[in-house]
Queue: 2 jobs
Job 1
Amino acid sequence: MIVARSRAELRSALGGRRSAFVPTMGALHEGHLALVRRAREIDSFTTLSIFVNPAQFGPKEDLSRYPRPIERDLDLAESEGVSVVYLPPAEEVYPEGFSTYVSPGSSAVEWEGSLRPGHFQGVCTVVLKLFNILNPHTAVFGWKDLQQCAVISQMCRDLDVDIRLDFLETVRESDGLARSSRNVYLSPDERIIAGRLNVLLRSAGDRIAAGERSAAVVADLLEAIRAAGGTPDYAALVDPVTMKSLDIPQKSSRIMMVVRVGSVRLLDNMPIAP
Ligand code: PAF
């Protein structure tokens, strides 16, 4: 495995070849490793980036304490057969004088978009830069970040980005908690609460699949989350392309929630069978 710490090292490692690419912010867990395995099924020449992107963190968010276990990440990437890891310094991604950003589309307006102003602008900007720098033929993302999947897909459609996007279902702990780099912040008590939340989401999804209107089900879900000790930011049944909320499920709609437990924001979603 080659670790490229600069654009020049990356260029020589790629040798003009296109790859199956997994963009990450590091602190790799089973969810990321599943993305790498999918990428390797698509192409044995697999690239992975590790870059904690300052542009997608708000001023009061956890940029400085975001976990950065680089040596462990590199060992995991190597054991999964990644061909090239791109580990750029921040100055290479955002050099002095950098001032051009991608303005994300309509799918970025609600939900995370309204609670975290600038977040998707930062995500789209870095993802488009990484796409331009690595020039992969395929990029693999996890459904766990549902709105991110919608926003990046829309960016690629709207800006004619010639990269195939592949999305993989969420990898979960044994109690169903979605794997996330931020789960390490949970205290033991918070971890127990976090584990109960996906059960609530799943049973809300089952009720909608059985024909109940989402408005009533979501209202019950929000109450159940509070009773379980979480603080919901939102929950909704949505179309995963437009991110508009739906009252009745359509093909491929998903139920999602974002819940704060202690200082940790937990994102989760799952498909609904209409
Ligand atoms: O999902 C993530 O880890 C990040 O948002 C991404 C896509 C690597 C961009 O920084």
Job 2
Amino acid sequence: MDRLSIVVPCYNEEAGLARFYDATSTVCAGLDAVVEFIFVDDGSRDGTLAALKGLAERDGRVRWLALSRNFGKEAALFAGLEHARGDYVAVMDADLQDPPGLLPQLLDIVRGGGYDCAAVRRVDRKGEPPIRSWFARQFYKIINKMSKTEIVDGARDYRLMTRQMADAVLRVTEYNRFSKGIFSWVGFRTKWVETVNVERAAGESKWSFFKLLVYALDGITAFSTAPLAIASVLGLVFCLIAFFAIIFVIVRQLLWGGSAFGWPSLVCIILFLAGIQLFCVGIVGQYLAKTYLEVKGRPIYLLRDSGGGDGHEGKA
Ligand code: UDP
Ligand code: MG
């Protein structure tokens, strides 16, 4: 029988974990695959870890990993993928925003052989603040214009993939991880399953608007070097303007003399150009910062502890 690993990053999910586990294991009971759960506690400050240990005691299919601090969802996901042993690997959130009911369908799609991955995208953003949805839509528009890697609008991280694709994702070991981009970048054939937006079952979203904005910028700089090109193009355009302006000033001086006009505007132009230069240097700095982090080759996460999975049958 095939083995299916379900990787679940958890950060302060105490309130909803039991519900998630119940709902998911009910669905899994109907799957003709041996299931293992890999819960990754991403340095939670509530009782998440204790709850996970409880689940592992009751159900031998549950394994848990506890990161030494909060490394972020991307790192937790990576940790989980690294420890998944199944022939198929599914990734889902702990808040029931990724409906477990879709698992059989996802598994069937991948087993059918035509696809290496079945992924879920939501077709609406009901229940989300409108301003956040608007920014999200703009983000997808911009990143898809700037990057060769396709980032699907509304794609969730909820997906089920073959061992081969999971291994491919693990070979992308960059520190600045933008999973939606990485899943797309590794290629393979992905089938998209559409669903409506589901609101979080319990607890709170870990993503403030500011965090999302930083994440969006991370995504753009991780998968596109277009901002660097913008800097060069802008620099070139302003050099040309300056060149013609200088010619104009020289000609005016030769023909009419009296060069003391226009100092205020000149000062404005100098300031403007200095601003543009700083702006461009800032963009270059962004990439430099990322290169710096990559070059340091830091581990993506550090494991504090892990356990469970000694194989005794659970209550499910
Ligand atoms: N998560 C995590 N580490 C973090 C933030 C989030 O492991 O630093 C997990 C979280 O427990 C959940 C998933 O990532 O299982 C998605 O988080 P959330 O529901 O807050 O994001 P949203 O659905 O609002 O985008
Ligand atoms: Mg959520």
